Each structure stands twice: as C-alpha cells, then as structure tokens.
C-alpha cells in the first residue's frame, strides 16, 4: 500500500466573494501545486475526511465520526449534487478495520454530504465522480465535541486498516483552519431553528437562498473588518500547520475544544479533518510535508491552507 495526504481548506464563498487578484493568484498557484502532487501520486482511492454543516448530520443523532458506504451530495452553495462513487467494499473493510482497532465508528449506508466533501473533489479532481472515495464525516461544528486525541486515534486506526489494502490511498482532509462563519448553534436557538438542527427538515429553495445570502454577507463583513465573529488567527493557524509539518501529531492530544474555539473560532474544529488525514498517513510510516501554503482570507471567512505530504522513501 502506498499513501499520501492533502489538507485543503474549503469555503462556499470561493468564486462569490473573492480576495484581491494577487491573493487569488497565490491560492491558485498553491492549489495547482497540490493538483500536480495528486496527479503524480496517482491515487486509486481517496479517503475523504470532511465536516458537515447541518445538511447531512443532525442532533437527532450526531455521531463524532461516520464512515459512508454510500453517499449523496446535496448541492449546497452551487456545489455538485448527486452520488459520490463510494467504493463500498473498501469502505466496509476500512470500517471493520477501525472498529477492530478499538475506535467506535458509526457507519452510514446512505450518507448525505455537502460542500465540505464536494469542494475538495471538485478542486483537486475536477468533479465528484472522478475517483473512488471512502467518505468519513468528522464532526467539527456541532457541540459538544469529543477529545481531539480521539480524532487522531480514528485517523491512525483507519491508516493502519488502509495499509492492509492493495491500494494507492490519498488521505484528504477538508476544512479549517481558523474561521467563524455564521453556522447556527443549537444552544439558545429559537424553536424553528432548533427543530431544523435536530430533525434536519430539508430547506426550501427560498430558505437555502436566505441562509447562503447570510454567509455571503458575513464574508463581506469579515473583509470590511466589521464582523462580530472571531477573526482569522494567523499565529494559531501557523502553529497548527507547524504541528503537521513536524509530524509531532501527539501534540494534538493536549489541544482542548475550548482552546481551539477561543483561538480559531467556532469552525476551527474543522481542522480535525486534517488531524485525521495526517494521522492516517503517519500510521503507514514516517512522512514529510512537500508543500504548504497559508493565507488569511477574510472574504472567504477562511484561514486558508493547502498542504501536501508523502511517505518518506525507505532506504
Ligand atoms: O454556512 C455554511 O454551510 C458554511 C459556510 C462556511 C463558510 C466559510 C468557511 C467554511 O468552512 C464554511 O463551511
Ligand atoms: Fe466548513
């Protein structure tokens, strides 16, 4: 088995509320580097760790992690809708492997996913149906959140399980780093919002348009410096990236949920997907980061990063 990892921030505001042309050009360069890396690695399976934004997972049952043996994208914010090409046999084998290693994993035979899963597939592969995937939801939005060390344990267990497959596996983490978009919060929500967060009534097109407009306006406020949300925190983002670069992944076991939220805002927990992806790669042997780009991009409400990593060659 051969493995590599990519971490990639997502934002539904890409293409809708863009930063200055020179920032956009730097992002495009970095994403191009990641695309070239992925093309050269030539994966035949992507294990995709991503969060959800109350499109597929709700408080009626909110698992910390969930692996899909089948998945369908809702098409929020203009992202692609429809089925993901899930490799169900590999998905089942990986689920068994994770459970055998003592990590309690929920399995879904009909997972619903949103832009968190779709955007990295579109950006790196040109669409959602270009490569077999195993989608793994990692809750990074809905509190309460469990210990960060359990996310590392999930990633490590899945990496060990993947090592038994005769595959070229790309572990892909979607989200982060510091950012605080207006994602609804159950605690203190008015009854209509609370019902939607618990039961997940599919929004009408008008409701979806209104909530997407709210995110767009939040991006404009962020860029104008008039936001009341937690600002992007480049110092914290660089600490997080340095942790992945150094390979000292056990450091994350000391990261608390409160500390992450205070430093990086309500959606900084999306970086859990990166932790899982790098822990999976680390479980296959020593790795090295081959590229790492970072820019604070308030227009996208994103401490935006893209990083690639490969296994150290064995001598
Ligand atoms: O409202 C949502 O569903 C999410 C918005 C968002 C905005 C910026 C960065 C992100 O990671 C997001 O998910
Ligand atoms: Fe997100």
TrEMBL record:
It catalyses: (2E)-3-(2,3-dihydroxyphenyl)prop-2-enoate + O2 = (2Z,4E,7E)-2-hydroxy-6-oxonona-2,4,7-trienedioate + H(+); 3-(2,3-dihydroxyphenyl)propanoate + O2 = (2Z,4E)-2-hydroxy-6-oxonona-2,4-dienedioate + H(+). The active site is at 115 (proton donor), 179 (proton acceptor). One of its GO terms (biological process) is 3-phenylpropionate catabolic process. Pathway: Aromatic compound metabolism; 3-phenylpropanoate degradation. CDD domains: MhpB_like. This is 2,3-dihydroxyphenylpropionate/2,3-dihydroxicinnamic acid 1,2-dioxygenase. Its cofactor is Fe(2+). Catalyzes the non-heme iron(II)-dependent oxidative cleavage of 2,3-dihydroxyphenylpropionic acid and 2,3-dihydroxicinnamic acid into 2-hydroxy-6-ketononadienedioate and 2-hydroxy-6-ketononatrienedioate, respectively. Keywords: Aromatic hydrocarbons catabolism, Dioxygenase, Iron, Oxidoreductase. Coiled coil: none annotated. Residues 5-304 form the Extradiol ring-cleavage dioxygenase class III enzyme subunit B domain. Homotetramer. Its EC number is 1.13.11.16.
